[in-house]
Design brief:
about 350 residues; mainly alpha; 15 helices
Length: about 350
């Protein structure tokens, strides 16, 4: 599904007309307002029904049952959803530009598979049972696979096709390993069954503190790479003509995507489709300029993630459906629609 977007990109690298920049700016403000509404809903709505007065009491009182529910559970869950959603959206935008594939997502380079394989290894062979232990193993697995994909993809001579093929091959191998271990170990199967669907329900202040430094570094690096990635997305020859350092940009892009997706997966498990859908949809109204795609993706991806989490809490009260299941239900039809639309456009 690699596509050549040179003509489209060439037109967009010129400065946008003032009216278009104004429209984009207003749209970004509207997206921020929508994010605020969804964040408020995430705090106010849950599997346990609370009135507005009870929610406010829980937010502004130091103790009590309402504070336990609202602050200790929902507030931490909402903050983690904001961080993880932004990380998934940014990593998806970076990978789509890096591979010149508008339907790429963080799973394309094996990052999710690396994190999952590391967690099942930690559970089975090292006896790790706590979420805080999973975080570090998952992050290490994602980083190791990211480095391996870069090496197998040709290192300094890496191309989008090589990176995608290396990531696909490693993902297949690691998921085979993961399934084999879980089949042979009932304890690993029981613990991994919850983690692999992706969930925000285990969010704690400690989890946020552990992943926050990585998410901040990855976010800053992604935004710094927006301009050089614009050149890389136009093709190697054009990027070289524009003075872009292809090897450095690809290496740093791999690092940014690995840090962002690795930390997000470590905290919540592999959540699918967020990193694919949002950057792709955003591109349809911002154009291919990553200097606009990235801010929009960082704002609208948490909207999708937190909105899906709220839906999961209310559709099965008093129980709940994990957010990874909701995003998969939403993402499957959307992905089919996007693929069919691209095929129709190319006929």
């Amino acid at each position: 599904m690699l596509v050549d977007s040179v003509p489209e990109q060439r037109a967009e690298t010129a400065p946008a007309p003032p009216n278009r920049r104004a429209i984009r700016s207003v749209g970004l403000l509207a997206a921020l307002a929508l994010l605020l509404l969804v964040a408020v809903a995430s705090i106010a709505v849950g599997a346990k029904e609370l009135s507005v007065a009870q929610v406010l009491h829980g937010l502004f009182e130091d103790s009590g049952s309402y504070a336990d529910v609202v602050v200790d559970e929902r507030l931490s869950r909402t903050v983690l959803g904001l961080l993880v959603g932004a990380a998934l959206g940014l990593s998806g935008a970076v990978l789509q530009a890096l591979t010149r594939n508008p339907l790429a997502d963080p799973g394309l380079l094996g990052i999710n598979a690396g994190a999952s394989a590391a967690v099942v290894t930690a559970i089975t062979y090292f006896g790790v049972t706590s979420l805080t232990g999973y975080v570090w193993f998952a992050f290490f697995g994602a980083a190791a696979v990211g480095a391996l994909v870069w090496f197998l993809g040709g290192s300094r001579g890496a191309t989008p096709v090589r990176l995608a093929l290396a990531g696909t091959a490693i993902s297949a191998a690691l998921y085979g390993y993961l399934q084999a271990v879980m089949i042979m170990d009932d304890a690993a199967l029981s613990r991994m069954r919850f983690w692999t669907v992706g969930s925000l329900s285990t969010a704690t202040d400690e989890t946020i503190r552990q992943v926050l430094p990585f998410l901040v570094v990855g976010t800053l690096l992604a935004f710094v790479l927006a301009r050089p990635l614009n050149a890389v997305a136009m093709g190697d020859d054009t990027a070289k003509a524009l003075g872009a350092d292809l090897n450095r940009t690809r290496a740093l892009s791999m690092l940014a995507a690995t840090v962002l997706c690795g930390a997000a997966t470590a905290a919540c498990g592999p959540i699918v489709f967020v990193g694919l859908m949002v950057p792709h949809i955003v591109r349809s109204f911002t154009g291919p300029d990553l200097r606009w795609i990235m801010p929009y993706a960082a704002v609208l991806s948490p909207v999708l993630l937190l909105g899906s989490d709220v839906i999961g809490r209310v559709v099965a009260r008093p129980s709940e459906v994990q957010v990874g299941i909701i995003t998969a239900i939403i993402g499957g039809p959307v992905f089919i629609f996007l693929v069919r639309r691209r095929r129709t456009a190319q006929l």
